[in-house]
User: What shape does this take?
Amino acid sequence: MQTLIRRKNAIMYTINNEYLEVSVQKTGIEICSIKSVKTGKQYMWDANSEVWGSYAPVLFPIIGSLKDNGYTFKGKEYSLPKHGMIRNNENIELAESTSNSLTFRLKYDEDTLKMYPFEFEFSTKYSLEENKLIVAHEVINHDEKPLLFSLGGHPAFKCPVNEDEKYDDYFLEFEEVEDAPTWVLHKNGLQGDESRTVFNHSNKIALDAHVFDDDALIFKNLKSSLVHLKSKKSDQVLTVEYKGFPYLGIWAKPNGNFVCIEPWLGITDKWNTDRKLETKEGIKTLEGKSTFDAFYTIEISE
Assistant: This one.
């Protein structure tokens, strides 16, 4: 069932099945609620503006920050906000809805061409399949010329979920033993050359007050294609499967009762980038008159 809800001047659409109730905010098409029908437990962060006022930004056509807040393409200068043009965007339209899905769409226009010179069409479909939410992205290139882009997710999950738990009762468990380092971010949000050890030949990352002291954990080419968010005190498990996404970000704000698990096709600029979109790390090329698809899933087990 799909319903429309208005809260504090925000338009939100809600779908549900016998397992989950999911709400999506129209502005920025952010997932703002994933609630268990069985237990009533809420699994999404509440976007407390005093800590971090977002739920789950959708990232397109860049990930993270741009050096000097811009980039060049074919010798011309352009500017895009951090994480791109979908976040906080009020012009995205609901294109289709069914009993268990919502599809949103944004198509290029005169305003988008000023910041991103490509004839794109970007859509995100949220659909429920039993206890799983599927987040599917599609990019269409309407031009004959190649289109350059990145995309990704930034969902923030409530942590702890239960009142008798603390943040440090939680941990992330990957499907494979990992040794991949995290790449250190500079204070301006750009990727440095330095890396540090996180896993040390293990598949777990313990969550505590200091794990994000140096900003996000950024991984490249992990062996795992899924990660579980678990508690030492309860049986519920939240799983994000990100097959096909070569980068993964893990992040939270200090004192934030949440953790972001972020599948990325692309990555923030390096500190020494030449600022050319053509040479940006992780940038993807979509040939003319072509379509690209990618999806990740969020599964709740109780």
Q: What stands out?
A: DSSP finds one helix and 25 strands in the chain. Residues 47 and 114 are 30 Å apart (CA to CA). The chain has a mean pLDDT of 95. Helices lie at 110-115.
